[in-house]
Design brief:
heterodimer, A: 292 residues, mainly alpha, ABC transporter involved in vitamin B12 uptake, BtuC, two-stranded antiparallel sheet, 2 strands, 77% helix, B: 251 residues, alpha/beta, 3-stranded antiparallel beta sheet, 11 strands
Chain lengths: 292, 251
Amino acid sequence: MSYTAWILLTASLVGLTCGLVGTLLILRRMAMMADAISHTVLLGIVIAFLATRSLHGIHMLVGAALAGLLTAFLVQWLHARGVREDASMGVVFTTLFAIGVILIATQVGNAHLDVEHALMGEIIFIPFNVTQLPVVGEVPLATLTLLIVTILVIALILLFYKEWKITSFDPALAASLGIPVGLMHYLFMTMVSVTAVASFDAVGAIMVVAMLITPAAAAYLWTDQLRIMFVLSGLFGVLAAFIGYYTAVWLDTSVSGSMAFATGLIFLVSILLSPKYGLLGKRLRPAQGEVK
Amino acid sequence: MVALSVKDLAAAYRKNVVLHDVSFEIKAGTLTGIVGPNGAGKSTLIKSLLGLHPILSGSVSFFGSPLEKVKKRIGYVPQRGSVDWDFPTDALDVVTMGLYGQIGWLKWPSKRHRQKALEALDKMGMADYAQRQISQLSGGQQQRVFLARALVQDADLYFMDEPLAGVDAATEKAIMITLQELKAKGKTVLVVHHDLETVEDYFDHVLLLNRTVIAHGKTEEVFTPELIAKTYGGRLKLTKEGMGYGHLVKQ
């Protein structure tokens, strides 16, 4: 495959998996948790690197998953002790992130791990770091990791579809029916962390927040059905990847930045045009009220 | 038979104890109204019984068993305001959720489950709204959907948190008919209720609650001006002009 094709595939996988995970983030009203976790996975990566001296796929995924769980647990722990949830989130993620930054600066030195790379990602280097696979041949490592994570995310969403739905819509009923709401929460936090770290090389810790939240927020404006929201959100993510890449080539600028910008554009178009909630739709049929 | 037995239950929010020394027994086949002022701990009581809110002390048993063993026999209708009605789903889907416990892991709802859900919606007079997005339902219709969801659970013991709050008269009637039918079938129903005027018409038993049980028993024995005044502290004045005995006005 060509250099461009690998980048587009990688970016599309980021868009797809973030779009799917993002749908649940929006519906569970946990958008800010994405922000928190995208930062704290840095600590997970650094610790995984210090422990194994390797930056390869599986170590990073495990490190990120642990960091994400730690974040979710600490936020919950402080919240249960009377700290407001938004405040405890703000305290936990900035602290863990700061520890990660300090560790990079003091312990990691000149390894292939620096703060700027972690924050912004560099998708254009991805095709150079390849691994050999049977049958398909050379595959960029980051792309392979993303592919595995995407398949995992899709499988988990499909396997526990009704559990995701009920624990998002009515956790009290779910708990009374015996569905383990807490376990689903931590499984979801793990999914967010692993998605964030798999997207790390491509778009970095900051832009992954845009990929997680914005396509899903846009999809929410177009549909009243959960499964369609999932599909639309994933498609918007992929669309943002394509728009972002070609915009970056055209303007000779950062691919991850352009992708995040493209998600913003898609959201803007959605809020203007969506038939039910769009500003334009409301303008076109002002008198026709919904059945209340 | 005793459907629910509560002994010395206490529960707190943060550091404030909201329930203490709560003990009572509910006989199977009764329709009980839980009545008390705002902040009396009515919702907290239900949540604590169902394990949704941690209890400080005390014990709870359902049909003589701990909660874990009888979850399938218990139905719960949360307050309507406790969920996000903008969630992308329709009425039929919400009712089907009542069956998720029975469907089990790794399985999707089948046609049979959806049929059952549709029948429950029909029972609540909501069959025409099955495909309607839930945000486009009125408050009363949303509450009927919640009731239908409880019906499909086919439980033996129901807890309902303010099912009549903010609903229209037709919905209130439909819900009360449903509750009477449940009772007639030998089911046990506990309802958090806020409207003192209708207590005598709706419930055969009353649990007067204000942080602890003030009184509990048959409506005609317990729902007396003295005990109501005791439950509401000094905040209620009994009026007897025109409307007759037991008509109450909040000051």
